Amino acid sequence: xxxxxxxxxxxxxxxxxxxxxxxxxxxxxxxxxxxxxxxxxxxxxxxxxxxxxxxxxxxxxxxxxxxxxxxxxxxxxxxxxxxxxxxxxxxxxxxxxxxxxxxxxxxxxxxxxxxxxxxxxxxxxxxxxxxxxxxxxxxxxxxxxxxxxxxxxxxxxxxxxxxxxxxxxxxxxxxxxxxxxxxxxxxxxxxxxxxxxxxxxxxxxxxxxxxxxxxxxxxxxxxxxxxxxxxxxxxxxxxxxxxxxxxxxxxxxxxxxxxxxxxxxxxxxxxxxxxxxxxxxxxxxxxxxxxxxxxxxxxxxxxxxxxxxxxxxxxxxxxxxxxxxxxxxxxxxxxxxxxxxxxxxxxxxxxxxxxxxxxxxxxxxxxxxxxxxxxxxxxxxxxxxxxxxxxxxxxxxxxxxxxxxxxxxxxxxxxxxxxxxxxxxxxxxxxxxxxxxxxxxxxxxxxxxxxxxxxxxxxxxxxxxxxxxxxxxxxxxxxxxxxxxxxxxxxxxxxxxxxxxxxxxxxxxxxxxxxxxxxxxxxxxxxxxxxxxxxxxxxxxxxxxxxxxxxxxxxxxxxxxxxxxxxxxxxxxxxxxxxxxxxxxxxxxxxxxxxxxxxxxxxxxxxxxxxxxxxxxxxxxxxxxxxxxxxxxxxxxxxxxxxxxxxxxxxxxxxxxxxxxxxxxxxxxxxxxxxxxxxxxxxxxxxxxxxxxxxxxxxxxxxxxxxxxxxxxxxxxxxxxxxxxxxxxxxxxxxxxxxxxxxxxxxxxxxx
Amino acid sequence: xxxxxxxxxxxxxxxxxxxxxxxxxxxxxxxxxxxxxxxxxxxxxxxxxxxxxxxxxxxxxxxxxxxxxxxxxxxxxxxxxxxxxxxxxxxxxxxxxxxxxxxxxxxxxxxxxxxxxxxxxxxxxxxxxxxxxxxxxxxxxxxxxxxxxxxxxxxxxxxxxxxxxxxxxxxxxxxxxxxxxxxxxxxxxxxxxxxxxxxxxxxxxxxxxxxxxxxxxxxxxxxxxxxxxxxxxxxxxxxxxxxxxxxxxxxxxxxxxxxxxxxxxxxxxxxxxxxxxxxxxxxxxxxxxxxxxxxxxxxxxxxxxxxxxxxxxxxxxxxxxxxxxxxxxxxxxxxxxxxxxxxxxxxxxxxxxxxxxxxxxxxxxxxxxxxxxxxxxxxxxxxxxxxxxxxxxxxxxxxxxxxxxxxxxxxxxxxxxxxxxxxxxxxxxxxxxxxxxxxxxxxxxxxxxxxxxxxxxxxxxxxxxxxxxxxxxxxxxxxxxxxxxxxxxxxxxxxxxxxxxxxxxxxxxxxxxxxxxxxxxxxxxxxxxxxxxxxxxxxxxxxxxxxxxxxxxxxxxxxxxxxxxxxxxxxxxxxxxxxxxxxxxxxxxxxxxxxxxxxxxxxxxxxxxxxxxxxxxxxxxxxxxxxxxxxxxxxxxxxxxxxxxxxxxxxxxxxxxxxxxxxxxxxxxxxxxxxxxxxxxxxxxxxxxxxxxxxxxxxxxxxxxxxxxxxxxxxxxxxxxxxxxxxxxxxxxxxxxxxxxxxxxxxxxxxx
Lengths: 752, 752
Known about the structure:
Organism (chains A, B): Lacticaseibacillus zeae subsp. silagei
Largest interface: A-B, 55 and 55 residues
Oligomer: homodimer
Distance between the termini of chain A: 43 Å
Helix content of chain A: 25-40%
Keywords (chains A, B): Hydrolase
Pfam families (chains A, B): Glyco_hydro_65C, Glyco_hydro_65m, Glyco_hydro_65N
Number of strands of chain A: 31
CATH topology of one domain in chain A: Beta-galactosidase, Chain A, domain 5
Largest sheet of chain A: 10 strands, antiparallel
GO molecular function, one term (chains A, B): glycosyltransferase activity
Radius of gyration of chain A: 27 Å
Structural class of chain A: alpha+beta
Strand content of chain A: 15-25%
Family (chains A, B): Belongs to the glycosyl hydrolase 65 family.
CATH class of one domain in chain A: Mainly Beta
């Protein structure tokens, strides 16, 4: 654990710049607007160790992948979101002296991410040889004009006059740290000094993946006055230099406006004109006015989704940081995009879509954002169905296999034990449809596009099982369960359970689907009978003596020992043990059997949940950022309040406290829902199966109270838990909610 | 199956050059001398599709390896034998017209590999615009001067005078086809026109693996006259050009002598002088005299090892081709080298050492070559013990883990399911010690260096097992057995069996070992007791109902179907099925349980062998070149003569008939012992456990007879099987041999 920012309910703020923690600081101060995002790199540049990172949603490259020996069915390429041209550059020179916080003398450093609106502010006093100047940068990526990045620089000489030179740059000469052989992914297409633009294209690839072309345009202004400056270009770069005299104690402001357009939206030849139009729109309003419009949209989000925690500012900061980062990554604006595990904050996981979306993001988004946002996540999968059919075909199987990692629906990760075997993601995609439908009551997806997804998934499972003559049961061999600390196991209980659930849900929903969809899908009676046979004869490993579901066929043969027996200096085991030792160990990375009890919560008795939780949780090392939240929800349900709170703390401030010592690479965006899940589904016990919203709240003893707001079927409901529990319907028609097992009728108060 | 060479008992000959089969032809006409080797590339160059390949024993490069996500314990690099500078180049121009069989007009093409002595001869009549010239190339790599390659060109104008230009070249500008990113592995260090040399060094690497420097020297002569020619150089290249007038019907000869020295033997600064000395030695004798000396050494080998088959020339050619290629790859001259799966014939498998050596090469070499040759293979492992300890430590385990793939003892393959899990190779290394000792009666290895190997291996197994409290047994989880069509299985019967055997053999041999070795190894009584406990309580999966040993824990849950149920157009399955489908299928790549019955042959009853053979062989697709031979031996033992012969045919002409459709990449050198094993251990039923040499021969009904010679404890024994069986002691002291269960006393005949 390393806490480098101060505790504050709404701010992520630091007054220190520790060169050893520059990358960590950059991750934590990343901002995004769903369209693009960037790490907390410094505008003026920084010559010390740092990770330059700017990412454009959906702009990626299919990198060559190398495995030991190629085998049929392996993906052709490894997709990665590439580091995009950097557009924040504003190199500063004071009386000829370059400002560089890695080498310059400075004081009064303050760095602040304001969670209200995703505004990053940084100020410091530069103590040059001949001048002392206070610099303040503010930047945000507009939620109103998604293509726009705005940077405001304020410079004030604190002693004597000074001459400030600002070299504002667009820089396409960027690389990825994770490139295999120091490849460059961008080919410059030209610079236009008069227009202030550079254009670049991703390099060709042999896989038929379209190349992306981006155009970046910058413009400097002071108030309403544009400052063209002296423009120079080199290949892939453009620099506008302006010189500003600084009189003592007179703040001078300079604003850098940037427009970024990509061929995802605008054809390359039309990009210059499109960018010019957007720039005109952007510069039609002042920085302050643009910020106000941007902040107004944020205010709406917070009004629907804020979580308030009384008596624990660290927890308060944690949950708001997570919500802000999630919303900066994805708010449903572009159905072609999804929620990358690191969002726009780092290179790892390549900015691609993982099962995280359905397993961890949807369960929060369905309640914390308007239904259209979650619906867009579902639509994304439907729109990628051709890719999913392709993936199954690659394995010689029928139906649709949604990918473990993807940009376009086609699997682009290159480990067979993941790609071929971590099949349970295919169930999560189906379960998200169930969750959305059950929560919102909106059946329009499941009855149309969603049914195409469900049938594709069911056809996959029906072909992927095999019938064991010896056991007289259907089995699923060769899978990797959610516990990625084992590979290639047989009859993973979670996978078998969820596969059968998929068939069951599809069979149940199919007759209600749109007639035209039913006709097109043409699921014959024989096929339905086959699915029913699989449901009826699926093999589930269980141990009657222990009264548990068994993680997979031979799990109980392991050298079973609790995770507490691992010496502290060997934790996390993934940083200390060989992969062989981890695979053979009994230690579980994240909820596996328990993930099933979490998803299909209403199908198991409390005793079943208790026995399994008590058996598996002690074996669990929670080394996935996705682990603690699910366990917290179950612990809360089972009355293990202390355990629930302990696990909440692991998830809610995972990045703020750098709990897994890897946040320098980027934030764990998709696991940031964990704090919300732990509070809303855990502490407050929210459930919504069988068309009945229910709560069963408790108040962690460390807190004085907490409250949150959710959207539910056209309503906004506020739940406040303190010494008592108060539910308030803020908007929408009346509703009866179960609270601790008792019905409670809610109506909008006349006083509201 | 594709047969492109004619049937002949001693020649591999073709009168056709099919451009579509150039690579296949090149593989089949590769030659080597243990020190170096090369594919059947053409001296004059060939502009059509081909695979340029020259390989120097032990000269390799640690290539960067890329996997999806790095995990602790993964090897740092992927080792590969790199394509070495080409030294055969003799570009031909006739009256200004370039000779290139891809584009020129020619007739009377003949290509012949003479198996007596590894001599490659090629002739053709070039029909140029102005001249018709017959060219004949002969080349061999000397067994007398290992650094020497000799090429003899004969040119004869068949019509009218012609001017022939020969540009003899050394070419260091070579690449590997299998490089990940088109890397070049060689850095030229300089050319010396006067000396006729080029020197190159392998590129630096970040892994601490030493770089290799090689120097190549060429010299042209006509009879005793040296022809310096006109020498030109460019970076990494040197060319000597001579012009020869050709009078009609007067053959003209030109010889190219090459010396290749490497920093494995000679420091870079001393290489020029060393090469000059070797060139003087080489050119001290004519081409014919050098060839005669070389051939004399081959004659000795054949006198000890030839196998004669009467009535089946195809089979005869197959076994001689295999023996010749094996001996060209390895004859024990350099203890630092081993037998790469493709020898010097292709890039695949990187020229590294695999378990093939102990499992397939040693069982033949121990009888077919002098004991020192096999002993050198054992010594190789002992000399790499530090690497084996390193490999175990990488996995967090005690003892020594011999690598799956290596040049220097350190694992250099990059698939965890192989590297971490295919542990049975560690038993094969131990078993080779047993085989050598049991066959030769020479205990000097097992009592000294060999015991260090055995104890290292046993300490590994003792740490790698775990005790399953539930079963009350020791288990080995997470392995890949010899059947590489499954990965990461638990309690592979073969692995468990061989692991326990290692402990047992080590315990049995330990008290007899050299006292100093025992003292140094310090195996305590407690440790021995622990090993005994593992032996006593090892878990072996068995099925009593079927009466078989079970391949691994859940094998019988598979959808068991015979391999004959696979449609013909889907064979081999590794070229038609996805890896996922293969892994989950019941189909077996090569002997797994049966490999154990083969190795520990004397420990199992005939009924056990029969039940297991009858269960597993029908599931086996024999898609490893190593499979058929083991099955042939067992089938012969079980009286399944037709099956044995069928399997023999698959192994004996695997490459000559391109049975697996992959010989274009190179020959399957290590599996070339299979034909010999099938004949000697299979048809002739040779066994040698318990210090008793035994035979139990039968004659395949397709043959009129077969005979072979073996070395046995200082003797040469000839076994001739026709309508009767005749054993002849050709050299050495008298011996009693069991033949078909009856003792037969052998003495060297006075008439001999």
